[in-house]
């Protein structure tokens, strides 16, 4: 995340977006047990705002709000989250995309590129087949795909599956 923010500071938006994409791929590992996660999330939100991606920023902001509810000792960060939300409200809502995927959807994405059925994916993720199906449908909607293969193609171009 530091590399993304540094690239933005230098005005190198393309490099910033690449670094932010790498951070997004790790986002599903963020946990409320590690307080520094909140700082990283604030930085991600700021980077998304600077890159003009309100959908990505809102997705991370939702996760940050959840974390702040669980870690009351981080109350000092609530004001920063509120400021980020004000900035987002001032922006026009942009189209959804891979950056708007939730942590649960990000955990699912690598499995979409496999031959595994929803039931098999659910077994590996310890969730029901119906949960996988619902999350997959949400992923398809957010990346503008109508099928699993189309979603994989779109996510492979610029999203969490991009090399």
Radius of gyration: 16 Å
Mean pLDDT: 85
Based on secondary structure, the structural category is mainly alpha
Uncertain segments: none
Counted up, domains total: 2
Distance between the termini: 18 Å
How many β-strands, per DSSP? 0
State the major sheet.
none
Range of helix content: 55-70%
As a percent range, the share of strand residues is under 5%
Give an overview in words.
With 163 residues, the chain is mainly alpha-helical. The protein folds into two domains: 89 residues; 61 residues, Orthogonal Bundle (Arc Repressor Mutant, subunit A), CATH 1.10.10. Helix content is 69%, strand content 0%. The two termini are 18 Å apart.
Summarize the structure.
The protein has 163 residues and is mainly alpha-helical. The protein contains nine helices and no strands. α3 runs parallel beside α5 and α7 crosses α8 (129-143).
Overview features:
mainly alpha, Arc Repressor Mutant, subunit A, 2 domains, 9 helices
Write the layout of secondary structure elements.
Blueprint: H1 2-10, H2 13-26, H3 36-50, H4 54-70, H5 78-90, H6 103-112, H7 118-125, H8 129-143, H9 148-158
Helix pairs in contact: 1-2, 1-3, 3-4, 3-5, 4-5, 6-8, 7-8, 8-9
């Amino acid at each position: 995340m530091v590399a993304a923010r540094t690239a933005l500071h230098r005005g190198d938006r393309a490099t910033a977006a690449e670094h932010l994409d790498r951070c997004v791929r790790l986002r599903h590992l963020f946990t409320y047990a590690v307080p520094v996660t909140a700082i990283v999330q604030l930085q991600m939100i700021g980077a998304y705002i600077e890159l003009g991606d309100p959908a990505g920023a809102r997705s991370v902001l939702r996760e940050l709000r959840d974390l702040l509810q669980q870690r009351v000792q981080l109350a000092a960060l609530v004001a920063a989250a509120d400021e980020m939300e004000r900035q987002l409200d001032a922006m026009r809502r942009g189209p959804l995309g891979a950056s708007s995927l939730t942590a649960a959807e990000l955990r699912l994405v690598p499995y979409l590129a496999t031959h595994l059925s929803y039931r098999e994916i659910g077994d590996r993720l310890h969730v029901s087949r119906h949960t996988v199906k619902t999350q997959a449908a949400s992923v398809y909607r957010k990346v503008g795909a109508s099928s699993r293969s189309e979603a994989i193609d779109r996510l492979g171009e610029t999203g969490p599956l991009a090399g």
